[in-house]
């Protein structure tokens, strides 16, 4: 029953409804040997720039910078005057330090028996050959190279080869369409494309070359297309095409890595944004590598001699750039790369990989964790996961219940979970627990890293007190921040620096709890306005997921004559739960008792799937269309467009009882 009148004025910017009392202290042994101690926060507070200078000193510079930060707001330059080579830092220096035989990547293809082990010495030779090949093909410093590849070793090799010669890579996720690829090639004016015949996904070869053929046919600026043979499937051949093995294999295995300026561009990565043209997020060299490598070492407490690290993201997303390629390699880590999907050939595939390689650090996304919850805990229970010592989460707010499930069924209640908040734009992790320090709360990103100044503010840009909700902002520049949007400084300023004067606005809602710890509450575009209260999608979703029958939930605000907007929830049940007659009433009551009556959904629909972007984030916009009986908006970034049909079919059966 609605207790408030619509449009009621409230003081709060965003409601804070959820209380969580569970705490997990760091394991004593881990804390005692942790790479980072609580002093790091104090050090950085005393002198933020000196803190980042020390982080930069973990890299090898050909020339030291003269100015740590030049801040011409909102345009930053870090480590000005410094020179370094990213590929040298990620590969060669480790070989020179005697680590040539250390494994850089254990690569696991999707089909049975497709695996490869690549040491740092091998990686050095492969990157050198690829860099020589790019130069033979006429690629020069500053040129843009589009990369459209499956998750195979040639992908990081191609990225590192670009970085080595100072070419700017633009990796386009290998599931994107012809038009997405074409727009990205055109926007960056790429002269070379690197691709493969295909990759393996869901048990079969998935072609990539035909997409490139169509896109390149409309991009006259592309001079050559280099094609890796992965699946052996048939491909059309044009006179721009050249096989990777034909051009790369015959190159010398040495290549001189010339130093580049700290502010030379390293890569462009497109992020879709809510409307219109994708934004080409530009990252540069010195600051990006400083923060990705420091955070990878600190947040995962990396012990490169003994850890086996696995980040399950696709390299086509920023998580893959920063935490499969640049961060781990700069730290001389040993990583796993997996080509395929978690359910091929069976739903235990991830756990089989953890067992096979004795993975110690696992970094994955809430969407995957909730899928594993849905499949049931008996699946991971069949594998030996005792090698794991740290678990990470990224991409969306992790619901407390998913966090606790992850901790228990994957981490055996022994591994700290780090919930890492960051974005394509931030380049590296910004807000997160540290595994040897933080007494973590399930669902909270907790605290800005040392050297990062984050805040939660109200509509006017003023800090909210503890217990308050509002907008997440970053107050000071950080080394791995985006430098601009490729070719569009104005859009950079408008998008990120105009909402609050002098503050970076990432577009996320957040709250600060009674202890001052930060919780992310979802994108502000998704916030629901119910009877004058701004209610976060995350809190209602987390309340639903805390019910033992629910694996996953998405909520949206649909227009309502009484309350302005009303909450409509879409839920996926856990593997063992049966859909019963009164499940909707049961879940509505559960939300009301967890968060209060204001957050009680008007309607609950049990659905088999939720619409997700290709990086696994829930697309609430489409659910809003369904909930308001509108024609569906743009579905082109959806992983599986049949999902919306399944959901729409459920709609007439929906109960909207008012109890
Ligand atoms: C790394 C990545 C960025 C957006 C971000 C936020 C959401 C990411 C999160 C999280 C809550 C976390 N997000 N990590 N929300 N808690 N730990 O995902 O980059 O693809 O650019 O997305 O993802 O909404 O603004 P990107």
From TrEMBL:
Mg(2+) binds at residues 545, 547, 550. The modification N6-acetyllysine is found at residue 617. Residues 539-617 form the AMP-binding enzyme C-terminal domain. Residues 98-478 form the AMP-dependent synthetase/ligase domain. Its cofactor is Mg(2+). It catalyses: acetate + ATP + CoA = acetyl-CoA + AMP + diphosphate. CoA binds at residues 201-204, 319, 531. ATP binds at residues 395-397, 419-424, 508, 523. Signal peptide: none annotated. Its EC number is 6.2.1.1. One of its GO terms (cellular component) is cytosol. GO terms for molecular function: acetate-CoA ligase activity; AMP binding; ATP binding; metal ion binding. NCBIfam families: Ac_CoA_lig_AcsA, PRK00174.1. Catalyzes the conversion of acetate into acetyl-CoA (AcCoA), an essential intermediate at the junction of anabolic and catabolic pathways. AcsA undergoes a two-step reaction. In the first half reaction, AcsA combines acetate with ATP to form acetyl-adenylate (AcAMP) intermediate. In the second half reaction, it can then transfer the acetyl group from AcAMP to the sulfhydryl group of CoA, forming the product AcCoA. This is Acetyl-coenzyme A synthetase. The lineage of its organism: Bacteria, Bacillati, Actinomycetota, Actinomycetes, Streptosporangiales. The gene is acsA.
